[in-house]
Each structure stands twice: as structure tokens, then as C-alpha cells.
Amino acid sequence: MAKIQQTFVCQSCGAVYNRWRGRCEACNGWNTIQEEVPSAGPQSGPAATRPSRARGRIFPLEGLTGEAKEAPRTPSGINELDRVTGGGFVRGSVILLGGDPGIGKSTLLMQASAAMAKSGERVAYISGEEAVGQVRLRAERLGLAGHPVELAAQTNVEDIVETLSQGHPPALTIIDSIQTMWTETVESAPGTVTQVRSSAQALIRFAKTTGTAVILVGHVTKDGQIAGPRVVEHMVDAVASFEGDQGHHFRILRAVKNRFGPTDEIGVFEMTDAGLAEVPNPSALFLAGRDHAAPGTAVFAGMEGTRPLLVEIQALVAPSSLGMPRRAVVGWDPNRLSMVLAVLEAHGGIRLGGHDVYLNVAGGLRITEPAADLAVAAALVSSLSGAALPSDSVYFGELGLSGAVRPVSQAPARLKEALKLGFGKAITPQGRGESGERALPTEALRHIADLVAGIASGAPRRVGGKRERSRDDYAVPDDPF
Predict the structure, then answer these.
(1) What pLDDT score was predicted for residue 154?
(2) What is the predicted pLDDT for the residue at 60?
(3) 428 lies in a domain?
(4) pLDDT score for 11
(5) In a domain, 195, yes or no
(6) Element (H, E) at 98
(7) What is the pLDDT of residue 370?
(8) What is the 3-state secondary structure (H, E, C) of 294-352?
(9) Residue 349, annotated ligand binder?
């Protein structure tokens, strides 16, 4: 008998080594490599001992006549969840849902399964972390105990597939979580890379053959990435991330990958005593409690997928007593902030080398698009000069390294959302590159110097007869003021 060759697999990224190492060279993780015995696999052994198989069918592409029809979907009963999935669950699709512990993943899935079961669909909720009684207690707390959801506490994939195959296939099956599942074809502990990959593959095969929509709940690492091998994210049809701050009462469901809908789409929920409640107008939620007269605040008109979203950018620029001033960012890319600060110093005539800079996106939302450059620059200049920005103005635009304000996409949708919330003016790039009637009066900017000059013109000079701040405090001698 041939000797079984043992391998060492990184539990964070799935890299394989022939011997143990303290640090993974692929993800630079320490103490993440564990020894695993590779499974024999279904294709092992000589061909004569394997059972014969029937050949698959080939379907010609030219046999499709007429217009292409959209894949049949099953609504979840939650509008924000349907928005993220692209209109509902596609039959036979597999969704990987990740999020921090305690963020509300199980609560959201319990509410979605109860809503679908109430409409007459067969829904199965498989928990590998809780007992059936614990799941029922959470359902009673949410007021969903009377809904016909099938519950089970099982971790063996073969038993789960065999049980779900009896009778009519479920319309939705929830696996909470994939890290607790194990399959008999792999000789390793649950949660390892090999077990997660093999269990996910078996569940995906079940979804494709029966037409059941499957949601796999995945754990996340300290960096916020879904734990387990990256190959699982490529195997599934959609990847969603449930985000939120424990200090805030709202949660964001973000689509990272979706084969049947738009990517980077978000759904906004509010955590209440009765579970997660949908937020139909998230812009009003993020702008609630805004201080209109405070310097250093700017309203950014952003886009999350196909949804326009207005959020408040807060900046604080204060003189620093440290040799290396601090740069603290919450909700934005720190590298992007460094670029904006460099552009302001080089092309805006702003001295920021001796100041601490603190930037925050109000409400805990995380922004990734570069269209927030102009709003961040306006908040920084406003905080440094002490001039409050107009409360009825919104900002959006990308900054180039030359100081030019560049156009961004979907400008009409941003302007329409600002007009709906009562804003009267928009500070935008010149030549947005999109045709259409302007829904809101705009002030077009060509260069970052125009923005700095406009804000500094309203900066306070004296308070109580004393000089409060001058141009020399924050600008170089040849500044544009």
C-alpha cells in the first residue's frame, strides 16, 4: 500500500506546503498552517473499479429562441434583501454571507426564512452552532414562532442532503455556518480548509441539482475577510457582507459579488428590539442630528451600487505638538486621505504638515469610491479655516494629482437625491460628461484652488475685537486667497 502523503495547509488562505512552517508565505499569517491528510477523492483508484456513468447531455445554444428570459426568482419578503440579491433568490443559486460575530446575520436570515415560509414556500434552517431549542427561543423573541420554518441542528453534510432530498425540495436552505459542517469524504476536523471546501462543494451540487437556493453563513477573520479558502468565494454565485458598528443601530448588507444582479449594492437595516427593520431612506438616517453651523462638516452625495446615498463627512484639523502629526481615519481609505492632503498642500496652498488630521464618516458607513475626494477636501479646508460650509450644499468629485477636479459617474442620480432631501446647491466638477437636465443648481469647479479660495473667503478674522486666525496660520505666502 502506498504511503499517504501528508500536507500542511494554511487555514487562512488555503496555501499548501509539504512541511510545516511558522508563517504562511501567501498571506503572512503566523501559526495558521496545520497538518491535514488529503482525502482519497471520488476519482481515486483504477478506472476498472469505478462504476460506469451515464454520459451527460449537450444543449445547443441555437435552440434558444426569442428574447432571453430572466432567471426565475423567489422573493424573500424583505425589500432591502431583495435589492441586494437583485430581485430575490434565483433557484439553484448559492450565496455566501459573512459578517462579524453578533452583527445580526442569524437574525436577518431568521426573518427572511419566516417571511418566505409565510408565503407558502418550504424553507429549511440548518444550524450547526445552536440547538433547535435555542433557535426557537430567538424566533420567539423576534415574534416569528408561528411561522412554518423547518429547523434542524446537524453538521454532517451527507445527512443534511439526504434529509432535504425527501419530498419537495425546499425553496431556501440556510446553513449556519459552513465552518461547522463536515463531510465523510474528508479526514480532517470541521473548520479546516479541506472540510470547508468539500462541504461547500457538496452543498453547491445539491443546490444546482434540486433548484434550492442555499445561503452559507461564513465566519470572518480579524481583518473582516470571510474565513476559509478563497476558492469558496469563486464557487458560489453571490458573496454578501453584513457590516455595521456595534456602537450604531444600523446595519448594511453589501453585495461583493453577484452573478445575477448588480455588485456593490447595499441594503440598510436598523437594529431594533423586534429585530432588523428596513430603512427605505438611508440618506435621512445618516444625516440625522447634523450640526449645520459647525466648521469641518460637508455632505457627500455618493453612490452605493444603484442607490444614491448622502452622508456627512466630518474633519478636524488641529495644531500638533508631536514631531509626526497624527492622521486618523474612520470610514475612508487612509491612503486616499494622504493623497488629498498632498494635493491640498501642493496645489491648494494649504499648510497641513504641522497639524493633526482626523476624518470620520458619520454614522459608521464605509466609503470606497473616489468621488468623495472633493467633500473630504472641503471638510478639511473648512475645519482649518474655521469657515462653516453652506448647510444646503452637497459635494462630489474626484481629485487628480495635478489638482484638477475630475468628473464622476451617475451625477444626475446624485443630484436628484440631494434635491429630494431639500438641498439647494451642489459643488461638482466642471463638465460631468453626462447629458440630461440638471435637477439641482450646481457650481462647477475646475481646480482645487477654486474650492480653497471659495471657502477661505468666508473664514472668520476677528472674534471680540481680537484676531482669531489669519491666512499665515494655514497658507503659504503665495496662496490663492
Answers:
(1) 93
(2) 75
(3) yes
(4) 78
(5) yes
(6) strand 94-99
(7) 93
(8) CCCEEEEEEEECCEEEEEEEEEEEEECCCCCCCEEEECCCHHHHHHHHHHHHHHCCECC
(9) no
Q: Is 208 known to sit in a ligand binding site? A: no
- Does one domain contain both 31 and 123? no
Query: Annotated binding residue at 105?
Result: yes
Phi and psi, residue 139, nearest 5°: -65, -40
Label residue 29 left, alpha or beta by phi (over 0 means left) and psi (-120 to 50 means alpha).
beta
What's the structural domain count of the chain? Answer: 3
170 vs 304: CA distance, rounded Å: 32
Instruction: Consult the annotation and say whether 104 binds a ligand.
Output: yes
**Nearest Cα to Cα of residue 95 among 265, 256, 271, 262:** 256
370 is in an annotated binding site: no
Q: Which domain holds residue 267?
A: 73-280
Give the end of a domain, one of 256, 280, 304. Answer: 280
Binding site annotation covers 103?
Answer: yes
Residue that has been written with the C-alpha cell 434635491 in this structure: 419
Give yes or no: residues 243 and 315 share one domain. no
Q: What is the pTM of this model?
A: 0.78
Does 295 appear as a known binding residue?
no
Is 106 annotated among the ligand-binding residues? yes
Mean pLDDT per 10-residue segment, the chain (481 residues): 68 82 85 73 47 63 55 88 93 93 91 94 94 93 90 94 92 93 87 87 95 91 66 90 80 91 88 89 84 91 90 94 91 94 93 92 88 96 93 94 93 92 92 56 92 83 43 42 39
- 414 and 444: one domain? yes
In a domain, 225, yes or no: yes
